[in-house]
């Protein structure tokens, strides 16, 4: 028996079509070699968004949770350019210094020694 050649999209479309005809999710998932969780997810996406939902989605996250706000990042970059000799410990005190110059919020990060 020759190998059946089909694309991933064709398989997903065939899966959805047979599910729409009323075949059981368990039997379809077993035949297509996917988990029931994946089968339910694909079928739900199809019902929600149609054929384009069957395409692969990017795995990259939509946003980075630990990214600094642009104004903070810009002030850090500016300070690094202004004083490249500073190390990480001195750079940690920099937001207070920037606040004294009117560039950022004043607060507990101010160094009492004025360094």
Low-confidence stretches: none
Percent helix range: 40-55%
Please give the radius of gyration in angstroms.
28 Å
Query: How many strand segments?
Result: 0
Q: Whole-Å distance between the termini? A: 79 Å
- What does the main sheet amount to? none
Written as H for each helix and E for each strand, in order along the chain, the element string is HHHHHH
Write down the overall mean pLDDT.
Answer: 78
- Overall 3D form: rod-shaped
Structure notes:
The structure is a single chain. The protein has 115 residues and is mainly alpha-helical. Among the domains are: 8-54; 70-100, no CATH class. The chain is 52% helix and 0% strand. It has helices at 8-20, 25-32, 36-49, 70-82, 88-92, 94-100. The radius of gyration is 28 Å and the shape is rod-shaped. The N and C termini lie far apart (79 Å). The relative contact order is 0.08. The mean pLDDT is 78.
Which key features would you list for this structure?
115 residues, mainly alpha, 6 helices
Could you give a quick summary of the protein structure above?
This protein is an all-alpha fold and 115 residues long. The chain has helices at 8-20, 25-32, 36-49, 70-82, 88-92, 94-100.
Q: What secondary-structure arrangement, pairings included, does this model have?
A:
Elements: H1 8-20, H2 25-32, H3 36-49, H4 70-82, H5 88-92, H6 94-100
């Amino acid at each position: 028996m020759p190998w059946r050649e089909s694309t991933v999209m064709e398989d997903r479309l065939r899966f959805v079509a047979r599910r729409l005809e009323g075949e059981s999710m368990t039997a379809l998932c077993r035949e297509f070699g996917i988990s029931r969780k994946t089968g339910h997810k694909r079928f739900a996406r199809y019902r929600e968004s149609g054929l384009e939902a069957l395409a692969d989605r990017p795995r990259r996250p939509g946003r980075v949770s630990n990214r600094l706000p642009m104004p903070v990042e810009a002030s850090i970059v500016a300070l690094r350019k202004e004083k490249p000799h500073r190390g990480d410990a001195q750079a940690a005190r920099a937001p207070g210094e920037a606040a004294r110059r009117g560039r950022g919020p004043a607060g507990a990060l101010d160094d009492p020694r004025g360094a």
